[in-house]
């Protein structure tokens, strides 16, 4: 059974940083690309970033390029999202997903 558990969310000031983690289990971690997706209050799901199996091939939506960095640790079965220079528009619930499997999400709030 696939399990994805996100952590690391919280309150940050504009310009601040947060690091999200997603612990994965129940599947062959090294065989799948994984993604972060977010949902702002009152809005739909919005893809943020993907890291492919080798860990070096990554993709980002334009709004977060240069500010967010996705990575994976195959030894720990964890993916990360380092978020720097945070903006109020980054506020939302952040989910990690692999295929049709999703975690429960972690809340990120960017506010002064």
Task: Provide an overview of this structure.
The protein has 112 residues and is mainly β. The protein is 0% helix and 52% strand. The protein has strands at residues 3-7, 10-12, 18-25, 34-39, 45-51, 58-60, 68-73, 78-83, 92-98, 101-102, 106-110. The strands form two sheets. Strands 2, 4, 5, 6, 9, 10 and 11 form a seven-stranded mixed sheet that branches. Strands 1-3-8-7 form a four-stranded antiparallel sheet, with no helix packed on it.
Secondary structure topology:
Blueprint: E1 3-7, E2 10-12, E3 18-25, E4 34-39, E5 45-51, E6 58-60, E7 68-73, E8 78-83, E9 92-98, E10 101-102, E11 106-110
Parallel strand pairs: 2-11
Antiparallel strand pairs: 1-3, 3-8, 4-5, 4-9, 5-6, 7-8, 9-10, 9-11
Summarize the structure.
The chain is an all-beta fold and 112 residues long. It has no helices and eleven strands.
Comma- or semicolon-separated keywords:
11 strands, globular, mainly beta, 112 residues, seven-stranded mixed beta sheet, four-stranded antiparallel beta sheet, 52% strand
If helices are DSSP runs of H or I spanning 4 or more residues, what is the number of helices?
0
> Which structural class should the secondary elements be placed in?
mainly beta
Envelope shape: globular
Rounded to an integer in angstroms, the radius of gyration calculated over CA atoms is 13 Å
What's the average pLDDT? 97
Order of helical and strand elements: EEEEEEEEEEE
Terminal-residue CA separation = 40 Å
Q: What is the helix content?
A: under 10%
Uncertain stretches: none
Please provide the count of β strands: 11
Strand residues, percent: over 45%
Give the biggest sheet.
7 strands, mixed
């Amino acid at each position: 059974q696939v399990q994805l558990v996100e952590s690391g969310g919280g309150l940050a000031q504009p310009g601040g940083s947060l690091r999200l983690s997603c612990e994965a289990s129940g599947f062959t971690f090294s065989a799948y690309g994984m993604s972060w997706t977010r949902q702002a209050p009152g809005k739909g799901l919005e893809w943020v970033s993907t890291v492919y199996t080798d860990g070096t091939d990554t993709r980002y939506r334009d709004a977060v390029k240069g500010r967010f960095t996705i990575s994976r640790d195959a030894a720990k079965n964890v993916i990360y999202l380092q978020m720097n220079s945070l903006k109020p528009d980054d506020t939302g619930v952040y989910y990690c997903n692999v295929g049709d499997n999703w975690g429960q999400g972690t809340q990120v709030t960017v506010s002064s």
